[in-house]
Predict the structure of Phosphatidic acid phosphatase type 2/haloperoxidase domain-containing protein.
Amino acid sequence: MPGASDTVSGVRGRSGILTASWLVLLTAVQVLAFVVVWRFAVGTEHGQLLDTIALTGNSIGQQRIEGIVGGVLNAVSLLSLLVATAVIGFIALIRVRITLAVVTVLLIAGSNFTTQILKHFIERPDFDVDEAREAAGNSLPSGHTTVAASVAIALVMVLPPRVRGWGALVGAGYAAAAGVATLSAGWHRPSDAVTALLVVGAWASAASLVLLLTQRETAQVEAADGNRRVTSVLAIVGLALLLVAAIALGWTDGVRSTPIPEFDRHQLLVAYGGSAAGIAGTAALMTALVLVALHRVVPRHTGRGAVPAEDEPDGP
């Protein structure tokens, strides 16, 4: 039973309208952010140069972390994606959440399909900024980062309230690690990983809206399931890392006129470290934004009858 400070409310009425408005706004903001990053990082010489400087910095200490990076990236494959999707669908089904199972599977499939379509159709102008990778063409968004982030967010959505907070912390860390690993391995530029996270974030908020709109009128929400502490931690960490990234980006922008071969170790480290912070910060903030309304989107009380024992709140 909820404690004295825990409130139970329905998902319709004013609170439902506010939640739906929040999810629509969140989807639109992340789509807009994607377009802004894409147009700057790919469509301008300025953006391409900053991306290339940061990517060049991955050579610093690369041999020391090569094994870790390889392990993270090797774990992201088509087989692992299919297995993870099946597990996520199974978790939702054993909780008797059929709509949730369908929507989370669509979230994973839609995110990855969108990334592959965008990667194919986005053209990368040649500004003679990165001659070594000129033949590779466009690499935005990152497929590996999309796989990791979509699985992580979908898993958070299907977990019961008592472990959802822990799942969000692990999921954000996994998505961040995958994004940074693609940069460390030299597979992707920083903007590739950031835009991949935005693709997943937009799909997650859109999927959440679908879940909200398909709920029963008798479904009820408990404030205790809000995971406020975890949401706050992820938001604060995410914003702090993005601030570090912005400072590093500003400093790198001030010295971008220097030819890349003439950059010293410190300059490259600032650019690379700032980009890694930006990727990790985006992953943390995106996960926090998903959590904000998740207890309303996936309420413990579905309106179908008694509350399953495994859905009792616990943990962070």
Notes: The chain has one domain: 10-306. The first helix runs from residue 13 to 41. DSSP finds eleven helices and two strands in the chain. Residues 1-6, 306-315 have pLDDT under 50 and may be disordered.
